[in-house]
Amino acid sequence: MTMMSIGRRTAAVGATLAASAMLVTACTSDGDPDTTPTSGGSAEAASGTIELRVATFPPGADEAAYEAFATQEAQFEEANPDIDVIGVEYEWTGPTFAVQLAGGSLPDVFTVPFTDSKTLLENGQLMDVTAEVDTLGYSDKFNPIILDGVTDADGNIFGFPRQAYAMGLHYNRDLFDEAGLDPDNPPATWDEVREAAKAIADKTGKAGYSQMAINNTGGWQLTAQTVSRGGRTQVDNGDGTYTSSISNAGTKATLEFLHDVKWEDNAFGAKVDLDWGTINQEFAAGNLGMFTSGSDVYTALVRDFGMDPDQYGLTVMPLEGDDPGTLGGGDIAVVSPTVDETTKAAAVKWIDWYYMQKLMNEDAAKADAQALADSGQAVGTPVLPVLSRELYDESQQWIAEFVNVPQEQMTPFTENIWDQTPVGEPKGKTQEIYALLDPVVQAVLTDESADIDALLTQADQDAQALLDQ
Q1: Strands, E assignment, 277-364
Q2: Quick one: which of 8, 265, 273, 329 has the most CB atoms within 10 Å?
């Protein structure tokens, strides 16, 4: 399929998702007259070819990303001539997912975050793929901690973990230089982060440090920094119940840190309403010295937000306190629960080919890396292995000739992340509690006199009420 056709078809389906989420729609790409919708929500051409609608990129991805996808799509269709892959612009959000599921407009294959997978599978909103995972031989190859995120109480599996990340501290090397800081020796403690943020703000006039605060990302990053300071926002009681522990020393220290950077050092910047997309935009534009996010965000910064790779630096989260760790996350490739068995089989073939084989097979890894590199996409962005570390290290050797990211600018992360203890995100009412914590972060950033103790006490009570539902 040509680049022009993939672009047209993706744009058309993306518009359909946005405009008719509450309607039951026939899932054809171009309104071809020779297709009829199946009961599962996909379409099968009269010739017997299965049309498989797969999530590609969020709206706004550049043309090079779609060129890489078109190359990979053509390779897959050559090996599977009975499957016609149709790329669909798609960006996961909880509320949008629920509407699209109800309206029958989900892609057949898409990805969901680890944090939402348990809730979705318990609600019957993901397709059971236990037999397929077993047949493909992945059951004993996945990192068991990661596989747990898509496994129900009976051991049934509802997706393929495809990518994981650890939280990191991202920094702008140019702003470090301008502020008289050494970009090859980034901050290793939270006190050093604060000092560097003030130096950047004083010398450059840019925000030295910022943190996400809206659309659930405020609670997400508050939790991440809490974990790095030895705190936990939730206790898993081991019996399906959870106890809120938001009001702990790590969370309080995090909020005090944000208060001091904002109000005492004047180093936070004016924008206190940033989320994942807007903080990436600010950082890529050179308006921000440091922020915390997943270690895999480099790809989006360069591909979607136009960042100059020479400016980028990455290090591990500073750790302090008793039992500190680094919050992890990632996403899972899943199949819509509404598809029929024929489309499900095609979907699993795509997931295995597009996501999994490059992690385990040298030829697949090289083909994937070459397709990305040839179209100017990032190869070599730091992630965590969803399989064993040995398989991950081997796969990195396979693709070494295609790596095009500035890995030497990421060595403070890659050389130290294995010494940090990975910590999973809270399991109980994850996104709801992240949303509940957004206003706590916003209060500290907008009110110099905010009562942090009172905010934490109230948040604990509100979170427990959610957990007790």
Answers
A1: 288-294, 312-316, 326-335
A2: 329
